[in-house]
Write a structure and sequence with these properties.
Layout lengths: L6 H7 L2 H7 L8 E6 L2 E7 L5 E7 L5 E6 L11 E5 L5 E4 L2 E6 L4 E7 L12 E7 L12 E7 L5 E2 L17 E2 L2 E2 L6 E2 L4
Antiparallel strand pairs: 1-2, 2-3, 3-8, 4-7, 5-6, 5-8, 9-10, 11-14, 12-13
């Protein structure tokens, strides 16, 4: 019934990167690397030494999952190229791969040996957030917490947290760890 499939469903079914993982010539199945509670990490060996890594969250709420490159059978010295197979963006990682996974969601990456790292300047970043209350009455406040993990080899400068509020809503100054934190002063170091 593809004629009634949503645009999002068609994008999944026609995702060339996912099809390439499925039809990889090495032909090995994915294996469970980790299963703790409702969190799964699967890895699939691919032709040419690449790895496909799937993070799956069976739980209702968002989680942060991570895996060391060494546990994937790669790692050691140097950086690796990571391609997010949903967004198709490439970045670099050094020792680990971190993913923020929504409730009942997945994150899937292709990890490759370095081929053109000098031209790849984007570090892999996983950003998480949580909101104490999803509904806030007029005159009341809530807490929003953000966490950023930089798995790359380069520092990230000018980190900013952007909030979207309905047009009728208002919000006041941002705070980080109890103090005002202008975005221009924020910095995420590698491995932090």
């Amino acid at each position: 019934m593809l004629e009634v499939a949503s645009k999002a469903t068609l994008e999944i079914l026609t995702n060339r990167d996912l099809i390439a993982i499925d039809q990889d010539p090495l032909g090995k199945p994915a294996r469970v690397l980790s299963h703790v509670g409702k969190q799964w990490i699967l890895v699939k060996d691919l032709a040419g030494g690449d790895k496909a890594v799937l993070f799956f969250n069976e739980d209702m709420g968002p989680v942060t999952q991570r895996v060391s490159l060494r546990s994937l059978g790669i790692g050691g010295r140097g950086s690796y190229v990571v391609k997010d197979l949903w967004s198709h963006k490439r970045s670099q990682v050094h020792d680990r791969l971190t993913a923020f996974v929504e409730g009942h969601g997945t994150a899937i990456y292709r990890v490759s040996r370095p081929r053109d790292i000098p031209s790849l300047k984007q570090s892999h970043v996983a950003a998480t957030n949580s909101v104490t209350d999803t509904y806030v009455e007029p005159g009341k406040s809530t807490t929003i917490t953000g966490n950023l993990v930089n798995d790359g080899t380069r520092s990230i400068n000018h980190v900013a947290l952007t909030l979207s509020v309905p047009p009728a809503g208002r919000w006041s100054r941002s705070r980080a760890r109890g103090r005002a934190c202008p975005a221009a002063q924020a910095r995420a170091r590698p491995g932090s």
